[in-house]
Amino acid sequence: MSKYYYCIDVGGTDIKAGVVDAKNNILKTSKTPTKTYFEKTSLAETLFDILKSLEETTGLPINKASGIGIGLPGLVDDNAGVIKYINSLKIKNYNIKEDLKKYTPVPVRLANDAELATLAEFKLGAGKGFNNLAMLTLGTGIGCGLIIDGKPLRSCLPFACELGHIKITQDENESFERLASTKALVNQTREAMENNTSSKMWQTYTPETVSGKTVFEYKDTDQTAKDVFERYIRFLGTGVVTVYNIFTPEVIVIGGGVSGQKSALIKPLTEYVNSHIFTKNIGQKVKIISAKFMNDAGILGARCLFN
After folding, report:
1. Which residues contact 293 (CB under 8 A, 6 or more apart)?
2. What's the whole-model pTM score?
3. Which end of the chain is more exposed for a tag (fewer CB within 10 A), N or C?
């Protein structure tokens, strides 16, 4: 094989890795709990151990790869090779490129994980054909990526797009991601069930087994689920309205865990957003679509760093 790339997506729960060829075909993937990092001496050691496992599985030497792309959930400076800050991993001002040189001479590129998901959708997925788009990834938190005139905003402003931290209520302790991420929806569902033991959601779920899809399964037959769902749409919609009013992209792509609900999420979200955006006064509407790629978005985005 002439060219292949080792790609890593470091998430809050899992570290996903894969080998991708020059035509963007994923040859092999793996998933490792992110907590593994805390058992190693450095993030570089953790990631290289994951890559070595993939190398053993695929037979494709790491040192002959055309590049290693890494997505990270925080502030990243690719030019300097430095992770400026990742709260969940307790990392600050860490030169990971320099540390990885101990293990491999292969060129390494870094990017924010949401930016990589955005790149994947822009170049290969649901956002292909649009020149200006925004993407929100709904997971443990909310990541955001922006493409402006065909270029990622973070290419010139590396610490931009941390829109998960904007405020959408008067509560200074809350933020967009604390109210509208997939994790937030799970927490809201769990709390609602605990406060209403007569909810039909108890027929299938317990607070320990609740997921992002629970309210979608019961919103049409259970008032408790309906209330959670409608409140969640208001939270998510308020944040999306803010993003649209600032950037007015051609399209907004929704990715991450809860985006797997497709039209059950996108339709009510679009209705809410279009009734609240500023440009409604001139008849202009927002196009909101589901991401094409789910768990593989970060891996494919890391591959896109080398196009």
Report:
1. 117, 120, 121, 124, 125, 255, 300
2. 0.90
3. C
